[in-house]
Structures are given as structure tokens and as C-alpha cells.
Design goal:
148 residues, mainly alpha, 1 helix
């Protein structure tokens, strides 16, 4: 009986072990199913991230093109402003020179006119002195001649 009991015990132990292995296998199947689900979800996330990155890269590329165009326009405007600034400086310089020449011309004309007026003043003053002297010497004679 010993070998038969021993066989029965062995069979029972094996049956218990097989049941344990079946439970573990069922647990492993559930783990594999969950892992498959997680892998599928990660694949979906990876795909969406790739598409988002592609969209962002396209947007960045477009923004870089726009930035390049804007920088080019800014450079063009700066060059245009430099040209306008130089032209304005040249024009202002020419106007300043012309105004200085006109002022010098007016000063010269005024100096000449004032000189003429001063000469006439001295002529008139001299004539008035001569006339006053003649009248002072001859006025009593002239008045006496008129009174007679």
C-alpha cells in the first residue's frame, strides 16, 4: 500500500501543482493581455506624438521662413532709411550754404546802403552848418534890408 498511497500522494501533488500552474498561466495570460493593451495604447500615443511633432516642425519651419522674410524687410528698410538720411543731410547742408551766402550778400548790401546814408548825413550836416553860418552872418543885414 505504500507504493499506491505514495502514487496517490504524488498524483495529488502533481494535480495541485498543475492547478497552480494553470492559475499562474491564467494570470500570465491576463498580464500579457494587459501588456498588449498597454503596447497598443503606447503605439497610439507614439503615433500621435509623431504627428504632433511633424506639425510643430512644419510650423517652426514656416515661422523661420517668415522670420527670414521679416529680417530681410527690416534690413531693406534700414538701408532705405540710411539713403534717405544721407540725402536729407546733403540737402540740409546745401540749404545751409545757400542761406549763409544769402545772409552774407544781404549784409554786404546793407553795409553799402548804410555807408551811403552816413555820407548823406554828413553832407546834410555840413550843408546845414554852412547855411547856419551864412544866415548867422547875413541875417541881420538881410533883416535890415527887409525892414527898410
Amino acid at each position: 500500500m505504500a507504493p499506491s498511497t505514495n502514487n496517490n500522494n504524488n498524483v495529488q501533488k502533481l494535480a495541485v501543482e498543475v492547478e497552480g500552474i494553470k492559475k499562474e498561466l491564467a494570470g500570465q495570460v491576463q498580464i500579457h493581455a494587459r501588456l498588449d493593451t498597454a503596447i497598443d495604447k503606447l503605439t497610439d500615443v507614439s503615433t500621435s506624438i509623431k504627428s504632433m511633432l511633424a506639425v510643430h516642425e512644419e510650423k517652426l519651419s514656416q515661422q523661420e521662413k517668415v522670420d527670414d522674410i521679416l529680417f530681410e524687410k527690416v534690413k531693406e528698410r534700414a538701408e532705405e532709411l540710411d539713403i534717405v538720411y544721407r540725402d536729407l543731410q546733403r540737402d540740409i547742408s546745401q540749404v545751409e550754404k545757400r542761406l549763409l551766402l544769402e545772409i552774407k550778400s544781404l549784409k554786404s548790401d546793407l553795409t553799402d546802403r548804410v555807408g551811403i546814408l552816413e555820407r548823406w548825413r554828413w553832407f546834410i550836416l555840413g550843408g546845414a552848418l554852412v547855411l547856419g553860418y551864412i544866415l548867422a552872418k547875413n541875417l541881420p543885414i538881410f533883416l535890415a534890408a527887409i525892414a527898410n
